[in-house]
Write a structure and sequence with these properties.
Layout: E1 5-10, H1 14-24, E2 31-37, H2 42-50, E3 56-57, H3 60-64, E4 71-74, H4 81-90, E5 94-97, H5 105-116, E6 123-125, H6 133-143, E7 150-157, H7 164-167, H8 189-199, E8 204-211, E9 220-228, E10 234-240, E11 248-254, E12 257-262, E13 266-272, H9 276-282, H10 285-292, E14 301-307, H11 314-329, H12 340-356, E15 360-361, H13 366-382
Parallel strand pairs: 1-2, 1-4, 2-3, 4-5, 5-6, 7-10
Antiparallel strand pairs: 7-11, 8-9, 8-15, 9-10, 11-12, 12-13, 13-14
Amino acid sequence: MGSKVRLGVIGLGAQGGAYADYLAEGKVTNMVLGAICDIDSAKKSVASEKFPSIPFYDNYIEMLESGAVDAIVTCVPHYVHPEMAIEALKRDIHALVEKPAGVYTKQVKEMNDFAATKPELTFGIMFNQRTNPLYQKLKNLIDSGEIGSIRRTNWMITTWWRPQGYYDQGAWRATWEGEGGGVLVNQAPHQIDLLQWICGMPKKVYSNVKYGFQRNIAVEDEVTALLDYGNGATGVFVTCTHDLIGTDRFEILGDNGKIVVDDSKKITIKRLAKPESEMSATMSMQDVAKIFMGGNTEELFTEEVLEFESVWGEQHIAVLENFAANIIDGTPLIANGADGINGVALANAIHLSSWLDKEVELPIDEEVYLAELNKKIEAEKRNPIKS
């Protein structure tokens, strides 16, 4: 391999097109556009016009065997990410999968297990939010014990407003067969990944999910999930695609303080002067009344505010550069492909709890999940919501 990684982009849609542009414009260090693949013949003329010197394939296996690429990125419907990654790794080609890693944990596990047999190859996932300086800082604050042990997490992320026209763009969108879910598999996988990356995986999940609540679709557009971390700590995760105004607020309460993230731009850290349990044991009601009736709260906690600027596209480029660096010189991956299973497992648990109408334990039974998903696919075939 030369000094630069030749990336094959599979799927020249919005995301694949953006990656091809970044590469063609020389925005990604140590990586160039090696080839493009798309099964839609209309994309061939788009590619030949924009990237005339780049080979185009309508069959990804042919592209993998062409010698034109060292690595691939899968910008295709979620169901086929694992299959494409496995075929690439089989041929000693590095694989970067888009989020989510797949639709259900069984297929993601097969991909991870196969990737483990090829440790010399680079296997990554496009969790670009992990390169976001705000979330890196947040993870560092939690990992370093800045606010002590977590007691509660609460993330309301409803900034995904999508009109009906968005769902009507393609027959596969917002269907069980084509996409495998709604907001949980399409819009919110980054937050589901960040939640478990920063706060850990819950032990149990109980959810209330609405399917086609405000949109004419078969899949979920409204989610409220209650998380149980198994040590007394709990969490709530709320997301939807019908809130035009939208809220993005992530709170983490710990023994020694609270961190609040607003709009993925601002972190407010409130550090208690002493652990909460100590205050509870030593303060009288009179002390408390004095403070809360207009007294000085600085005796109780200090406040620090950190502001972040984030430019769209930079984080995707950062993942591509990190992926190339891992291939070239072994720089550690920000997002190892094997990590993708955690977010899928959490999304699967949220779905399954609502389908079975009960609390589910993690890891869930993947055979039960797949059987229930297949029931949804069959029902959809018999009675399609979108003609």
